[in-house]
Amino acid sequence: MAPPSRYKQFAGNKSASYLATAETAEIVNLAVRLGRPLLVEGEAGCGKTRLASAIAEELGLLKHLTIMTVKSTSQARDLLYRFDALRRLQDAQDPNNPTARKVYPYIDLEPLGHAIREGKPGVVLIDEVDKADIDFPNDLLDVLDRFEFDIEDLPRSEDQACLAERGFGRHISAPPKGVRPIVLITSNREKQLPEPFLRRCLYVQLDFPTDKAMLADIVAKNLKARLDAVSDELTAGAVERFMEIRKRGLELGMQKLPATSELVDWIRVLHWQGRKAEEISPEKLGTSDQAILFKIRNDIERYRARTVDEAGD
To answer: Of 188, 199, 208, whose CA–CA distance to 126 is shortest?
Structure first.
């Protein structure tokens, strides 16, 4: 494999709708230079998934951005290839259809398999790796380390026929002068990831911004991308109130704190409703405010209960 340094530097501030910290950008660039997957963690709504899109956008690779969402039933091979056994079984019901006698017509490469085979610059996002079985991360990292894999469902006897007709054989490997894609793997910490997996990744934690000016910049970038002409006064005031709401949520032990995505949606709605920042009170959030900011029923009930208690004091 060619060295991954053929990629441009990621600055983190050139996306139309995403703003990364200097620290995050530095870690991204280190992962690219080392050819290592980047494990991205952080609370929901803080931009883990969108970081991959921002990297692809800034480096001119949006057409080569691959996003794969992991499920609880996922195996590592599901990201590499798909064997359509059901279609083969259906075809086998027709005695005049000789296709079902072979396996290779029913095998297709999945996006990660294509990326390995092509060896072209790109960005691959493997989303929510912690949802899968405990073996999934290590099996995946083994493939990413070597950048090659075998199609286990393809009989060796069909290797040459598959190569001739489909353009790939049983063993898939990157071209000698190919380029590794930039690989990001996100986790919501639903379960502890294996230590061997962690050792082979670089790590970045995306925390909710505590700097109000940076948070306002993030909002401004998102709103500009959506063509919403929101005043600076409304943005600054809403950010101020939002920080108070998050603080109250932390004190209440909310399961899902409102994050960046909720803040952006909330400010858009405030703008549409013609409301002013000084009219917003964390103690008196309206129904629409709560629907946008809170996503779990128990969290809403806790917030409302505290508001009632404060009103009665």
So the answer is: 188
Is the pLDDT confidence value at 233 over 90? no
* CA–CA dist 37, 234 (Å, integer): 39
Q: Who's near 280: CB < 8 A, 6+ residues apart?
A: 237, 238, 241, 270, 289
Longest dimension (CA), the chain: 82
Residues 201 and 221 in one domain: no
Q: For residue 284, count CB atoms less than 10 angstroms from its CB and return exposed for 0-12, middle for 13-18, buried for 19 or more.
A: exposed
Shared domain check, 282 and 141 = no
CB 12 within 8 Å of CB 28 = yes
Distance between CA atoms of 154 and 152, rounded to whole angstroms? 6
What does the alpha-carbon distance between residue 9 and residue 143 come to, in Å, rounded to a whole number? 26
Of 122, 120, 126, whose CA–CA distance to 141 is shortest?
126
CATH number at residue 74: 3.40.50.300
- Give the domain extent around 241: 212-312
DSSP code for 291: H
Q: Which pTM value belongs to this model?
A: 0.82
Please choose, from the candidates 225, 215, 211, the residue with its C-alpha nearest in 3D space to the C-alpha of residue 15: 225
User: By three-state DSSP, how is residue 183 classified?
Assistant: strand
How would DSSP label each residue in 294-306? --SHHHHHHHHHH
Task: Provide the sign of the torsion angle of the four alpha carbons 56, 201, 217, 47, taken in this order.
Answer: positive
Per-residue pLDDT of 4-63, as tens digits, reads 467 999 998 888 778 888 999 999 999 999 989 999 998 877 888 899 999 999 999 999
How many alpha carbons lie under 13 Å from residue 152 in its C-beta half-sphere? 5
Element (H, E) at 201: none
